[in-house]
Amino acid sequence: MLGVGGPTFLTTKLDFVINWARRNSLWPMPFGTACCAVEMMAAAASNFDIARFGMERMAFNPRQADVLICAGRVPYKLAPMLRRIWDQMPQPKWCVSMGACASTGGVFDTYSMVQGIDTIVPVDVYIPGCPPRPEALLYGLLMIQEKIREESLGRHGALRAENPLRAGVPNATAEQVAGLTGPFGNSTRQNRLSGLVRTDRPDRPGDRKP
Description:
- By secondary structure, the protein is of the alpha/beta class.
- It is built from 8 helices and 4 strands; from the N terminus they run αβαβαβαβαααα.
- The protein has a 4-stranded parallel β-sheet.
- The chain starts with 13 loop residues before the first helix and ends in a 16-residue tail after the last helix.
- 29% of the residues are buried.
């Protein structure tokens, strides 16, 4: 910088300026389906104040959103809508999987529930908990900011590459989906994938007193 009265300038990197603007003006797209959504609402309230990080503008329009926050379980009937919202969000965009149900299916190990939304959309940050507290969501969003901080325009093509033929298509292959919904996922497919004869509760008549 020059002295008083002279022209003032500041030298910096273009990557730093762009990433600084991006990480401090993220607009979340809330996709709340269960109790995790209540914690997400609490994060936006005055006690936790998500506005401190420039994220107070909840964009209920995917065309104007940067971060998709999936808070809660996702049934298979709802999965196409989740993928459609993700496809409608412009680049650059990021995704947060909030809670055990969104990340792995949680306690809902059943035929109707998606066993992890990363089979539908690419996930940047996983937030554990059932449900996670608002502080956990804020920490996850700070991790998104750290991820943006490390990005470079030189890798923009690799980071934002999207195949138009994959629009509306799950993020995982058929084999990966079968593996996720196999022995550690949907019980309805355990017999076919693991070769077990039965998967229900074994008979243990000796456990009860006569």
